[in-house]
Design brief:
Largest sheet: 2 strands, antiparallel
Number of strands: 2
Protein name: MarR family transcriptional regulator
Radius of gyration: 19 Å
Shape: globular
CATH architecture of the largest domain: Orthogonal Bundle
Order of helices and strands: HHHHEEHH
Number of helices: 6
CATH superfamily of the largest domain: Winged helix-like DNA-binding domain superfamily/Winged helix DNA-binding domain
Structural class: mainly alpha
Distance between the termini: 54 Å
CATH topology of the largest domain: Arc Repressor Mutant, subunit A
Oligomer: single chain
Strand order of the largest sheet: 1-2
InterPro entries: HTH-type_Bedaq_tolerance (IPR052526), HTH_MarR-typ (IPR000835), WH-like_DNA-bd_sf (IPR036388), WH_DNA-bd_sf (IPR036390)
Strand content: 5-15%
CATH class of the largest domain: Mainly Alpha
GO molecular function, one term: DNA-binding transcription factor activity
Helix content: 55-70%
């Protein structure tokens, strides 16, 4: 029996979900020094640059008081700072610090090392096949994620 387009979408969706969930679970199986919310917040600051706290909270899906507390902790740790808005001196934006960038780079290195260890346990042919699949799939997944996140949330567009 032929698969309908909807069934094909569901199959791909289920496979991507299993892949993402499995990798996240494995990468977080060792107790990390940073929560997922903290890492996601720093990652967003690194990608998007300085952003309003209210916009940051909405983008990360957490309440503003919780984001305020998180940003305060990040400031206390030297990982984030508040900076003036270039167009409106009354507005303060949250920005990642150089120390925050270093922490995120080290986190990515450690995660990549864990994945490399997993790959090293596979037969060479499996690693080759997986590499080919990733070179094909990754650009498509990036475009899919980009399209799903439009309109993009930025630090200076909407007053709050």
């Amino acid at each position: 029996m032929d698969e309908t387009p909807e069934e094909g979408l569901q199959e791909v969706a289920a496979a991507l979900n299993e892949l993402a969930t499995g990798m996240v679970r494995h990468l977080l199986s060792e107790r990390q020094s940073m929560s997922l919310t903290t890492a996601a917040t720093l990652s967003r600051l690194e990608r998007e640059g300085p952003i309003r706290l209210t916009v940051l909270a909405a983008a990360e899906g957490i309440a503003q008081p919780s984001m305020t507390a998180l940003v305060q902790r990040l400031e206390d740790q030297g990982l984030a700072t508040r900076v003036g808005h270039p167009g409106d001196g009354r507005v303060r934006l949250v920005a990642i610090t150089e120390a925050g960038r270093e922490v995120m780079a080290e986190r990515r290195r450690a995660q990549c090392a864990r994945v490399a260890d997993m790959l090293a346990a596979l037969p060479e042919q499996d690693v080759r096949v997986l590499g080919e699949a990733m070179r094909t799939a990754l650009p498509v997944v990036r475009r899919m994620v980009q399209a799903a996140s439009r309109p993009s949330v930025s630090g200076g567009e909407s007053p709050s």
